[in-house]
Design brief:
The protein has 15 helices and 15 strands. It is α+β, with helices and mostly antiparallel strands and 427 residues long. The chain folds into two domains: 189 residues, Phosphorylase Kinase, domain 1; 232 residues, Aminoglycoside 3'-phosphotransferase, Chain: A, domain 2 (Alpha-Beta Complex), CATH 3.90.1200.10.
Amino acid sequence: MKIHQNLEREPFGEIIEQTLGRFFKNMYGGEYAVRWYAGSRRRRLRGKSDEQIWLCNPALNALFTVDTTSEVLKWIRRQYSHAPIVWRRPLQRCLVALATHGSTAAWFTSAALGVSPAIPNGNRLLLLGGNNRLRLADMRQARVYSVLKQGFDPVFLRREISVRQAGSDWPIPPLLEYAADFTWFAESLVDAVPLNRVSSRKRRLAAATQANSVLARWCERSRTEIAAQEYVQQLGELAQRRVSANSLFSDQERRTVRKWVASAADVLSTLAVRGGKNIPLTFGHGDFQPGNILLNNSGHIWLTDWEHADKRHLLYDAFVYGLASRFPGGLALRMRSALSRPSALGLAVVSAWPEIAAQDSFRLRLQLGIFLLEELLWYLEENSNHLFRKLSGGWLDFRGEFEPALAAVAGGSAEAIVRAATASMRA
């Protein structure tokens, strides 16, 4: 999530002040005053000489000092060298070039930070926004600090740290150090770009295939089995607890989610009779999408952002990637396509996860239905923080897809799925 989305969803200015004040004290010693300047407050920066000023470009998700080095700006430029949407590419290249040029970068910033006293070597640091954490990239030391945002659950960084401790020779940026209270950790800086920003289709496919194969092997290490109906019951109970605790949901929304859980339990209980009594579980990535796969110039991949890592169905990550479920609009129809033709999940997925093609229709429907419940839990967790002012766009899209997706799993016709999708959007 970029800073411009954080600004809409949460009191980002207050959060960044508290988060960085705490972290800088921990890292450098002494007290640090951090102030967020946006809107009319930004005028107060004029003539200020007692603060180290960091410029904020929400569209680039970046903050850097007014005297930042060309090394920092070049790093940002590499991240945005390719736009996934074709018609945006010429304009994006132009805007990114201007926004990362030393003489024009300030024109493209809409907010700023004032830090006092100045952070040592601050002009070689780059601050990046995120869902549950801030990232501080140190170009001089070639390391990145992930800092838990004030008021957010330490479980997200605890998951990251546990994965890196078990990483060994897996393509996961190595852990360098971490705080005992799990409020920050440091990892090696990886000079690579997300897969969705790689211009070569051939390189993207090769990297996606490699990443899926690596993750499939990772998941096999912790594979266990559980009775399907027992696992569905566990998912339902957890969903009930999360929806009850969510302060953004209306009573109507809570009733709707509870209805979904009950309907899914009925459908999956029926499918479990013919789709297999047991299903495999594993400790997987949890947010396996192109944005969390990094690729460098030599073709080496890195799997990053393990903050949602947890025990789930063995094929959960494969379905997240193959169904593009982090962009849930149209998810129901993509699930229907995968049910009728598993190869619709893509060559990179099917070739790496042989269990997808090795099961009958009932088994695949059961596993996709379990995936749907797990996705519901993912979106409930993503929207659970009490500091949020609004539900995420992903949840709003997913909310319109759940019922038609469940209809697809239950064996509904294309017409029935479209009708369910239309009814959900109207609701």
